[in-house]
Amino acid sequence: GVQIVRIALYVDGPDAEPTIVEYEVLVFANVEIKVFDKVVFVGDTLYPSDLFTITENGQVLPFDASMISGKVDLFTAGKYVLTVQYKGISQTVTVSVLDRSLLGTYKTSLTTIPKEGFEDEEGYVDEGVAGKAIGDMIISREGIIVDGKIATILAVTDVNHMQIVFGGYEYTLTYEDGIVVLIPLNPYKLSYSDSMRALVYFNANAYDV
């Protein structure tokens, strides 16, 4: 942390009034702060130990209210930023509180991309492949599953938008009125496929699909 060092200089002799000079010295303590951004839903319980740990000389310090500042309203959806600090070292941690209406099972009428059959000049026949129904999307407190694939939340932009990754591709998730739209990030303009394509899901409690 920052320490103040005061030095008395007797520029006019040992019997005169000294001139006091102050310096700020940054002392690096053996302190490590680890923060963990959290995504919760309205009404959930959140503990300080869920958000950060502070170690000093290899020992985990017990929680103290002076270590963290800021406010999270667990009854109001929103994005909240807190500051964790100890001995002049600080980190920020983000808590995203999502509306509980986002929870549930989502259905889609989309299918995989069908493959048309063909017959070449030598008589080889490819019968093609029919489109198959795409699996549900499940959003729970334990996480997100899309068509049987576990998705990881990379970042929450606001209560209706987030970045997720599944199947090796990143997507922008947009939620409104029980509808989830997944748009793949495609910076290299790759052709779309069943592994990377836009998807639309409808909350099964609100829509018949």
Keywords:
8-stranded antiparallel beta barrel; 4-stranded mixed beta sheet; mainly beta; 209 residues; 19 strands
Give a description of the structure.
The chain has 209 residues and is an all-beta fold. Helices cover 0% and strands 50% of the residues. The chain is elongated and about 110 Å long. The chain has an eight-stranded antiparallel beta barrel. The chain has a four-stranded mixed beta sheet with strand order 4-9-8-7, with no helix packed on it.
How is this structure best summarized?
By secondary structure, the chain is mostly beta strands.
Low-confidence runs (pLDDT<50, min 5 residues)?
A: none
The coarse silhouette is elongated
How far apart are the termini?
A: 59 Å
Proportion of residues in helical segments: under 10%
- The helix-strand sequence is EEEEEEEEEEEEEEEEEEE
Structural class: mainly beta
Mean of residue pLDDT values: 91
Q: Report the portion of residues in β strands.
A: over 45%
> Care to count the β-strands?
19
Helix tally equals 0
